[in-house]
Specification:
The chain has 265 residues and is an alpha/beta fold. It contains eight helices and nine strands. The chain binds 1,4-dihydronicotinamide adenine dinucleotide and D-galactaro-1,5-lactone (15L). The site of 1,4-dihydronicotinamide adenine dinucleotide (NAI) has 26 residues, from helix 1, helix 3, strand 5 and strand 7.
Length: 265
Amino acid sequence: MKRLLITGAAGALGRAMRVRLASSAETLRLSDISDLGAAGPNEELMQCDLGDADAVHRLVEGCDGILHLGGISVEDKFSKILNANLLGLYNLYEAARAHGHPRILFASSNHTVGFYRQDQHIDVTAPMRPDGLYGVSKCFGEALARMYFEKFGQETALVRIGSCMEKPSNHRMLSSWMSYSDFKLLIDCVFRAPMLGCPIIWGVSNNDARWWDNSHATYLGWKPQDNAESYRAELDATLGRPDPTAPLSLYQGGNFIMDPIFPEK
Ligand code: NAI
Ligand code: 15L
C-alpha cells in the first residue's frame, strides 16, 4: 500500500497501531482532532474534526486504505456521538466515494450486540441489540457501510471489536479480549485480501471463552494467535471471583448496559 490513513491516531488503539503498522504502507497519514505529536520518518499528520466535511475530503484524497478508528468510543452525549460517529462517518464515506473508493476497516464494536447474555453464542446473523447510543452509532456505521457497498462497491471490513488492549482487565474480557498483535494481523489480512466485500468480523482473539463465531470469514486467512485464558489465574488472584449476578458477568456488553442517556446540559 502506498498511503494508509489512520483516523483516531491519537487514541489508545491509534497509538498502538501507529507503531505496529509503520512498515505496512510507504506512508502513514495520521489524523485526529487531538494532538498527534511529532511526525515520524514515513508519517504525515493532519489534525481535523471528522464532522468537518471539507477537511475529511482533504484527508482521504490520495489514500489507498483507511483504518477508521476515530470517533467517540464510549457512551456520551448524543450531540458528540452525532458529530463524530454519524456525521463523521457520512463525511468519510462521501470522501471515499469522491476519491477512488479506498478500502476501509471500520472499528465497529461489540456494543452493537451488548444486550445478548454471556451464555449466548452468536454469529453475524444475530440481530443487533445495541446497549446504548454509542452502540446505536456503530449499528448506523455498519448500515452506512453496507449501503455504500451495495450501491457503489465500496469495500469495508466491519470489525466488531471486543476489548482491544494490552491485556484483559476483568473476567468479562476473558471472552471479549483481542490482543494488539492479533488486531495488527487482522488489519494486514483485510488490506491484503484480493476480495473483501463488506463482512462483519468479530474482533476477538482465539479465547477459549469467546462468544462469537467468525467461521463465515475464514476466506480472509486471519488466524488470531493469542488466548485470554492465560490471564485467568492472574485475574482470579487480583480481582477475586466475579459476582455472577452483576451486569459485568451477565451481558456481553458488560457495564455499558447500565449507562444512562446522558443529558445535553
Ligand atoms: P479512543 O477514544 O482512545 O480513540 C478515539 C480517538 O478518536 C481519540 O483520539 C479522539 O480524539 C478521536 N476523535 C473523537 N472525536 C473525533 C472527531 N470529532 N474528529 C476526529 N477525531 C475524533 O478509542 P480507542 O479505544 O482507541 O478505539 C478506537 C476505535 O475503536 C473507536 O472507534 C472505538 O469505538 C472502537 N472500539 C474500540 C474498542 C477497544 O477495546 N479499544 C472496542 C470496540 C470498539
Ligand atoms: C468499546 O466499544 C469501547 O470503545 C472500549 O473502550 C471498551 O470498553 C470495549 O468496547 C469493551 O466493551 O470492553
